[in-house]
Amino acid sequence: MTAPDDSSGTPRPARLFATDQELLARVLAPYKAHCRYLLAAEAHGLDGGLSRVRGTFAIPESCYIDDTGHLNSVEVNLAYNQMMYYLVAKSVKERLLTGFESWTLDDFWRHQLPDILIARFAARFRRPVNPRSFSGELEFRSVDLRSPGGSPLLMAATAYRYWDAEGGRCDGDATLAFVNTA
Tens digits of per-residue pLDDT, 13-70? Predict the structure, then answer.
């Protein structure tokens, strides 16, 4: 499988990290066994303190609905969450992502579920994606420290896309808020 052409002008990987199976298993531990869709994840450290992950997914059957025959919005969101959690954890471990320089993996585990929020999520379905076997990519575009009302938080702009071997395609963007980071 190859990714669609990337004409966004995004920086090329500065550092590459193969799937860390132990880290991936720990990242996916909060998910029910039948909802662990991310099988492999290659992280890239990018210039400018940003990072990207490319993942391989399989959804044998939907966890909530009869088979639709295509990747749907709930599964897009779950796959996004799994890629994002893995990328943040790997970025913390390898010191790839700006804004997280002081974090340890223990900090990530403590923040993973209660303090990493999706503030905005958008998806665009271009062509149906086969959920049984597909690839995805998620990239941090920016991370900014904000202090509304004196309480610091990190806001991150991300973009993602999914594709399959048959030409299926979905893409979108999401804004993340990392709260209680002090």
Answer: 568 999 999 999 999 999 999 999 999 999 999 999 999 999 999 999 888 777 778 8
- Chain-centroid distance of CA 97 in Å reads 13
DSSP assignment of the chain equals: --PPP--S-PPPEEEEE---HHHHHHHHTTS-GGG--EEEEEEEEETTTEEEEEEEE--SS-SSSS--SS--HHHHHHHHHHHHHHHHHHHHHHT-STT-TT--HHHHHHHTTTTEEEEEEEEEEEE---TTSEEEEEEEEEEEEE-GGG--EEEEEEEEEEE-TTS-EEEEEEEEEE-S--
Number of alpha carbons in the 13 Å side-chain half-sphere of residue 134:
30
Could you tell me which of 22, 37, 39, 45 has the C-alpha nearest to residue 131?
37
Q: Return the HEC string of 49-64.
A: CEEEEEEEECCCCCCC
φ, ψ at 61 (rounded to 5°): -155, 150
The one-letter amino acid code at 84 reads M
Q: Write down the pTM of the prediction.
A: 0.90
